[in-house]
Amino acid sequence: MYIVFEGIDGAGKSTQIQMLKDWLEANGFRVETVVEPTESEVGDLIHKILQRPDAQTDNVQNLLALLFAADRMMIMDKLEDESKIIISDRSFISSLAYQDNAEWVGVLNKYAKRPDLLILLDLDVKTSVARTSGEDTFENEAFLTKVRENYLNFSKDYTCEIIDATNGVNKVSSDIKKAVAPYLGICPDCIP
Ligand code: TYD
């Protein structure tokens, strides 16, 4: 099973992924986590380009879409490992939301793996900016408003659970476990 976490910056994806992983392992599942962008050479290049002051322009966004798609191709084998539950911090759905060019992103990600389950950690933009430094190019209100809107639209195309990420860490974690349990045949009573 390929479970993808998505959400705007500051939604708490990495914390929640670790908590879900620990819980699934305690329930006897084998779990592997992946993060996009990856730690590959392409990932390094992506991080450099994300720092550019013109990172939000259409040309640079279209370039980034290419790099994100290439970066994703580099971990395809991992994503296709059916012996484990794969939990991913972001996927091509981030490209749909952030690069905001569905046609181009669709072409580039023709072979990208679609999630079996999408967990969208939904957060209002003001809380996102307050939780993050607010200094990165992608962490400003107008940009993130569009990203959040895209997420809510594109999530309809997938098996998706939308989780309110404004709550405290433990409440969000418990909501995620409740959402994931039926897909894995875990009894609801096992959820702390
Ligand atoms: P990073 O600092 O690694 O992630 P995070 O802030 O989630 O910890 O930078 C990832 C940034 O790249 C994040 O702002 C989202 C963006 N992104 C895209 O724009 N398109 C994509 O396809 C992916 C995977 C990420």
List the helices and strands and how they pair.
Elements: E1 2-6, H1 13-26, E2 31-35, H2 41-50, H3 58-73, H4 76-79, E3 85-89, H5 92-98, H6 102-108, E4 117-122, H7 125-131, H8 141-154, E5 160-164, H9 169-184
Parallel strand pairs: 1-3, 1-4, 2-3, 4-5
Helix pairs in contact: 1-9, 2-3, 5-8, 7-8
Bound molecules: thymidine-5'-diphosphate.
Q: What is the CATH architecture term?
A: 3-Layer(aba) Sandwich
Radius of gyration from CA coordinates = 16 Å
Q: What is the CATH topology descriptor?
A: Rossmann fold
Provide a count of the helices: 9
Overall structural class, as computed from helix and strand content, comes to alpha/beta
Q: What is the ordering of alpha helices and beta strands?
A: EHEHHHEHHEHHEH
Cofactors and ligands? thymidine-5'-diphosphate
Major pleated sheet: 5 strands, parallel
Enumerate the spans where pLDDT stays under 50 for 5 or more consecutive residues: none
Beta-strand portion reads 5-15%
